[in-house]
Amino acid sequence: MELEDLKSIWKSSEPAFQPKNETEIASMLTGRSRSIIEKLKRNVWFELVLTLAVSVALLVYALALTSGMLKWSFISILVICLAYTFYYIKKLVLLNRFNPANENVHANLVSLIDSLTGYLKFYRRSYSILYPLYFGLVLLLGAIERGTTQFLEHLSKPKTIAYLLGMAGIVFFLCTSFTNWYLKKLYGNHLDKLKGLLKDLEQ
Amino acid sequence: MAIAEEKRFINLINEHQGLIHKVCIMYENDPDVRNDLFQEIVFQLWKSFSTFRGEAKITTWMYRIALNTAISGFRKQTRNVKTEDLKELHLNISDGWADDREEEVQRLHWAIRQLSEIERAMIMMALEEVPYDEIAETIGITQNNVRVRMNRIREKLKKLMCP
User: Which domains are seen in chain B, by residue range?
Assistant: First the structure.
């Protein structure tokens, strides 16, 4: 069977579809896109706004505090939030540059895979840094509340150390498992599909 | 100005909507998902319309966006159609085939759906008489590679259609 035979079969019957009228087409020009890039953009915007809101709240709260240690704990979180803000802005600039019209299928797949991989990598890395940081912060707040001498005395007990290590392990395991599951559900499956397509294309 | 551009775009879609419908049929079985995909392709075309400067043929530009959207950019909200469903569809079709030609057409459509998404894009363009250099440009591979892959696709279709 030659390509010409296939063409002849293909042309002998046009696939049945209901043509769209002009009003229907016009209504499609507005509305919400369901593309992966638009979804990424919406997520980044949501996270950026949330980070900024949390930063402002933290700043207001930190400035109102008189306790030095607690104040600096909040300011350290504020610094992390600001670093995230720069990342989100950079990500939005990159996503806005993305245009499927300028790329062929191969280049489009490569760009999408790079973009999604970078996004997921950033999330995993940032969470693996943030969890120990938050844990340290909880300890710091505990020290402030109890008083440093009493806190260190309590911390030197083997039972307390075992409890803290156990808690740290459980929290770290649950948080990383949840993050991995969430990211896989959000973009991971789509990323696997894209990698499969690229592999197929490059064979 | 904007209204004139919108009108020009709508006329363009009206004229070439068969191309978009064919891409949708090639990639989606479910009529609702197919409709969503059609909308998404039109939306993406509209977003890029202002940047189209006529360097490529209008159909090449449309194929590029339609295929990028269908293959890698579109997020389905309903379930994927599994291979088992396709087999079932094939069997259902075969029960009601009216004549030999119609049978061949249905068999070809079924066989194309068994191919990978990239292969589907290539064979669809080839069947639509898109020249190999344009297929190569749209997919992002060399013309030689297109020729090699088209031979492989043809062999696959032959085996699927005449087992």
Answer: 2-73 (1.10.1740.10), 83-161 (1.10.10)
What pLDDT score was predicted for residue A14? 64
Please calculate the CA angle A59-A62-A68 and round it to the nearest 5 degrees. Answer: 145
* Closest in B10, B51, B73 to A25, CB measured: B10
Would you give the DSSP letter of residue A14?
A: P
In this model, does residue A15 exceed pLDDT 80?
A: no
Q: What are the angstrom distances between the C-alpha of A32 and each of A9, A10, A44, B36, B131? A: 38, 34, 16, 11, 34
Query: Where along chain A do its domains lie?
Result: 34-98, 105-203
B132 at interface of A, judged by CB pairs closer than 8 A = no
Whether pTM exceeds 0.90 = no
Q: Which of B156, B34, B58, A146 is nearest to B148 (CA)?
A: B156
- List chain A residues with CB under 8 Å of B162: 1
| CB within 8 Å of B134: residues ≥ 6 apart | B57, B60, B63, B125
Q: Which two tokens stand for residue A136?
A: 């340290």
**DSSP assignments along B109-151, one per residue:** HHHHHTS-HHHHHHHHHHHTT--HHHHHHHHTS-HHHHHHHHH
Encode pLDDT of A86-120 as tens digits.
888 888 887 787 766 668 999 999 988 888 888 78
Does the CB of B16 have a partner CB in chain A at under 8 Å? no
- Fill in the DSSP letter of residue A102: G
- Residue B127 CA to residue B120 CA, distance in Å, equals 10
Phi, psi dihedral angles at B54 (to 5 degrees)? 80, 15
The answer to whether B13 and A22 have CB atoms below 8 angstroms apart is: no
Residue B130: C-alpha distances to residues A17, A42, B60, B127, B139 (Å): 21, 36, 9, 7, 12
Q: Are B105 and A12 an interchain contact pair (Cβ–Cβ within 8 Å)?
A: yes
- A15 close to B102: Cβ distance less than 8 angstroms: no
- Please check the confidence at residue B91 and state whether its pLDDT lies above 50: no
